[in-house]
Write a structure and sequence with these properties.
14% strand; 234 residues; binds zinc ion
């Protein structure tokens, strides 16, 4: 994908983030990597209002902003830290999701209660206690946890999800908020039952590439049952 197409994809997912209620106003930011540069949302804009050409090109190793570009998001250091630590990722999404903030700022960790949360987020979700937003301290705390997991909760602030591409990072962002909403409701309703280690291990393997290959092979082997009485079994 070239930079022009990546800009268009960023606009699409930025709108989806707002539509899903994962952030409001000028909160949250989004970026995607193309080789040695990232494109990141500009500072001071509502994500919904950013045009393709307004995404700011920043060198990942150099931290240099392309000439004539707007000012990058104030969380630019956090995004750079993610790409520098994770050569395998192509996108970073930072949101301010209300259920996630409510649950995790009240002393709870986000925990797996149902299949999708394990399949999308894996078994590892990091939780960082509050650090002032936009600071180098926050970027450096994220830098330490991001090698180990694809989702980090920032208590009293929001969440960061990373992915191979924008689609994966976006689905993870949605899954974080859905998981938090269910856990919060379950906590209010009574005593939530969380998935145990064996259940989570089994689910995690469902999301793996190996499982998908096995599933495809089994689908090819599948033969529909013959119906009694039909001449050729069709
Ligand atoms: Zn934020």
């Amino acid at each position: 994908m070239n930079l022009r197409d990546l800009r268009i994809e960023l606009v699409y997912y930025a709108k989806r983030i707002l539509e899903e209620g994962l952030t409001t106003g000028a909160g949250g930011n989004i970026s995607a990597r193309k080789e040695k540069v990232m494109l990141i949302s500009p500072s001071g804009f509502c994500l919904q209002e950013v045009a393709p050409e307004q995404y700011v090109e920043v060198g990942i190793e150099t931290g240099e902003i392309a000439k004539g570009a707007l000012r990058p998001s104030s969380e630019v250091l956090m995004h750079l830290a993610c790409y520098r630590q994770r050569p395998d990722i192509g996108a970073v999404i930072h949101t301010h999701p209300p259920y996630t903030i409510a649950l995790t700022s009240s002393g709870h960790d986000l925990r797996a209660m149902f299949a999708d949360s394990v399949i999308y987020l894996g078994k590892c979700v990091s939780h960082l206690d509050y650090i002032t937003v936009t600071t180098p301290e926050l970027a450096s705390a994220v830098e330490k946890v991001i090698p180990h997991c694809d989702c980090t909760i920032l208590r009293n602030h929001g969440a960061i999800t990373v992915g191979e591409n924008l689609k994966q990072a976006f689905w993870r962002a949605c899954s974080v908020e859905e998981s938090a909403q269910i856990q919060l409701l379950a906590t209010l309703a009574g005593k939530p039952r969380f998935l145990d280690k064996n259940e989570a291990d089994r689910l995690e393997s469902l999301g793996s590439e190996q499982y998908r290959r096995q599933l495809l092979a089994r689908m090819k082997e599948f033969q529909p049952p013959r119906r009694e009485g039909s001449k050729d079994g069709k």
